[in-house]
User: Fold these one by one.
Assistant:
Number 1:
Amino acid sequence: MTIVYALVSVGKTVLAEYTATSGNFPTVTRVLLAKIPNQDGKMSYVYDNYMFHYVVEDGVCHLCMSDEMNKHRIPYAFLEDMKGRFVAQYGRQEPLQAIAFAYNEDFSKAIQERMDFYNSDEADRTIDSIGAVKSQIDDVKGIMVQNIEKVLERGEKIELLVDKTDRLNQQAFRFESSSRSLRRAMYWRKMRCYAALGIAGVVLVIVATATMCGGLDFRHCRRHH
């Protein structure tokens, strides 16, 4: 499970957002935000191979995008955590009057920190043991999942692009490192073979000479001199 993008907004006005990758999903979310009802509620939308989950409470929308289908437990736990921290820091009334990205400088760091945690194995192991969060996500089983195209008007279909360059670069780096290690191992293996052949050749020359000269003391050869 990977949460790749998250934001906090009031209506279409984004107050803070964070992503660890790149793509056009901020554009997709702006279209989606225009369709999300202002009343309190939760919903999940399918879009290509991604899921958008949101929680609206007191006019503030907390939304995230994940790359795993049909798994809502961690995304909604993340949203509830993010919502609690946002309310604790900014209250419930102040954000309703805030301008776009008013909290981005500070709260994007909080989003990043919580996103890193909820993308970790530790979160998957411990999330259900956190009573306060568990009570909030018990209702996730009843969340209705809709295809996002059902809420978009004709002509609003936007191709969702998520940049996998970072992952591809990491794979290329690992492949290059492995190739270098393999070439180095093959080189030293070849050198060892050459060394072994050289030593064997020297030994054969010594043995042949010793045989011709009457032994390892080369006595017959010395007499000729």
Note: Helices lie at 25-33, 73-90, 104-118, 121-126, 131-137, 165-212, 219-224.
Number 2:
Amino acid sequence: HHRGGSQHSPFAMPFTQLAGASAAAKALAPTACTTIEEVGSTGVGALTLGFLALAVTTVVMVAKAASADNERRKYYFCCTFICGVATFAYFAMLSGQGWTAIAGCRQFFYARYVDWFITMPLIILTLGLVAGQDFVTLAAVVGADMLMIVALYMGAVSVVTTVKWFWFLFALVSSSIAFPQAV
């Protein structure tokens, strides 16, 4: 007999699986990898093109900000930081930084999530400024977006399938709370 409640609860199975997730995670965690599945030449080419495009765009945005009137300057500054942070993230990935090995000895680029955590709020701010959105709505959408990115990161690094799906669900819920308010 199972203590602590009915065995017929619809929540019993997922939470039972979550309770065992720690042991499963330890079993699936990467040990000393002899070989890591890394980005191939096509991926390196894509990272190079992304880095170069973002670097050039960052320089263009700095030049535009320097010559813009006060009203437009705020948009160019936001775009400068969006492109600048993304440039750094792409350079980190291209230069062999900003990644770690995860379960299955695969290369995982956490630099993308750092990039998104910083740039997505700036993108939302820029779009909100253009649309004339109020501060409370902007703050709600930015907060929901940040929660979503954290949940997506946690799901990406989770090794237990049930845990991955819970993080994905948390990301969906986070994004669905505030995003409709912005429309």
Note: Residues 41-67 form the longest helix (27 residues).
Number 3:
Amino acid sequence: IALPSSAPVLSGVSNRKLPVTLSSAALLSFRHSESSALKDAEQQSRLTLVTKNSFRLALALLAGWADVACFRRFECFGNMMTGNLIKMATAVAGENWQDAGFFGLLIVYYVCGVCAFRSLDLSLPQYSEKFVALPILLLCAATDILYLSFPSARWHMFLVAVAFGAVNGVSAGKVSAVTCMMTGHMQKLGND
């Protein structure tokens, strides 16, 4: 199709000049909206990264706080099953069957918490971390209330183990970082 020599032209769009017609104006509009959409997506990606990193940081802080509090109160870990496994093995070696059973059950309850979150995540993938937050809070609050009522007992640690199994299910499944794996994180920092 031959265009009249008097048709206005627009430069700077590509290496050649385009005649300004309805179709080229639509193309320019599309390119502008595509560029805006890319910028919006890039800003959303940065916001998501900041939000994920903030969430990871909050989970790591919570994990550390919980393990220190649990170890000081109950001489076990609510979040670090490797420590509980070592304590269980030490109890077995010392033929302290009550402690061995206690630490073994902590690990079982932790796995139950992971399984509970995973089943929730499979049934409600977009909302699972929101729905699990309240039960985690209630389990931790119940542990504190039971501690105040029975300070010398430690069986209420099973509630914390379930809660932190769910917390690590969230952190592994939703933000791709298990916050209690300090050895792995330190190794990664050393390798980077």
Note: Residues 7-22, 24-28 have pLDDT under 50 and may be disordered.
